[in-house]
Amino acid sequence: MTELSQGSCEACRIGAPTVDETEARVLLQQIPDWSLIEVDGIKQLQRQYKFKNFVKAMAFANQLAEIAEAEGHHPGILVEWGKATVTWWSHSIKGLHRNDFVMAAKTDGLFDQ
Ligand SMILES: C[C@H](O)[C@H](O)[C@H]1CNC2=NC(N)=NC(=O)C2=N1
Question: Is 90 in the pocket of ligand 1 (CB under 6 A)?
Answer without folding.
Answer: yes
